[in-house]
Amino acid sequence: MPENTLLLVDGTAVAYRAYYAISELSTRAGKPTNAVFGFIKMLQQLEQLWKPTHWAVVFDGGMPEERLARLPTYKAQREPMPDPLRAQFADMERYLERARICSLRMDRQEADDVMATLAAAASGVVLMATSDKDLFQLIGERVFMISPSKAGVRMGPAEVQEKTGVRPEKIVEWLALTGDTVDNIPGVPGVGPKTAAKLLAQFGSLEQLWAKLDEVPSQKLREALAAHRADVTRNVELVRLRRDLPVPVAIDSMVVRRIDPARLVPFFEEMEFDSLARPLREQLSEGPMLDFGG
């Protein structure tokens, strides 16, 4: 029996990418639809390319209280979501419901943690459609990262090490040292990706780095590490993804289902997506579908 493949899509990231990739698309009445159209096209391309047996689109549900408690400025530098994009999320979710694609949004939980929990629970291959380097820590022999936009690009453990200088199991410590400007997490001043990778290669772990700090050749680097040890310890907890969230949907219910044109054509017509509606109208004219799967 073929192994299951679970495709997890970072819905918020894909929505942003779609919004900025397609401009000035709207209905005749002036309703913006660019993000919705791009979102649908990216999902269709991902399914056609990777042919998952199961899939889910995961949206951010807000900031976890435990991360904000550790660092009140966590992600505080990010610009607010553009109003025209925010207004389109309801239609993206309507599409997912009509296409019978599982979507998840957990209150005050980031998409990364939900995806990490699902990846840990899955028994087959897991493909994570995202560009967030925090998810490098999940990559392993059966868990891979794929690009939402670059066809065929798949990252495994070897690719993570080539890109960062460390294996996936060391990503948390690597990020704790470097910090993450995208998430507004300050690292050790003067410690970039290459220096962090060298330190972890030399000492093996943060625990050993602290135990043998006097063996760090550079006095300036030793002093910076010693002064920011508490920050690094905090960062470990900030960047380590949770894998134990009470996700309310079972993986078995994420099975990929055949498209039902009768459910989607009215939606596409309302959104004035004629290029998407046309092939489904042709299917409807050929007669009713007898089996929609799942």
What does this structure look like?
Strand 7 and strand 8 (185-186) form a beta hairpin. The two termini are 18 Å apart. The chain contains 14 helices and eight strands. It is elongated, with a radius of gyration of 22 Å. With 294 residues, the protein is α/β, with parallel strands linked by helices. It has two domains: 5-159 and 242-285, 5'-nuclease (Rossmann fold); 168-239, DNA polymerase, domain 1 (Orthogonal Bundle). The protein has helices at residues 11-21, 34-50, 65-70, 83-86, 89-98, 111-121, 157-164, 171-178, 193-203, 206-211, 219-227, 229-239, 261-271, 274-285; strands spanning 5-10, 54-59, 102-105, 125-129, 143-146, 154-155, 179-180, 185-186. A six-stranded mixed sheet has the order 3-2-1-4-5-6, with helices on both faces.
Chart the SSEs and their pairings.
Elements: E1 5-10, H1 11-21, H2 34-50, E2 54-59, H3 65-70, H4 83-86, H5 89-98, E3 102-105, H6 111-121, E4 125-129, E5 143-146, E6 154-155, H7 157-164, H8 171-178, E7 179-180, E8 185-186, H9 193-203, H10 206-211, H11 219-227, H12 229-239, H13 261-271, H14 274-285
Parallel strand pairs: 1-2, 1-4, 2-3, 4-5
Antiparallel strand pairs: 5-6, 7-8
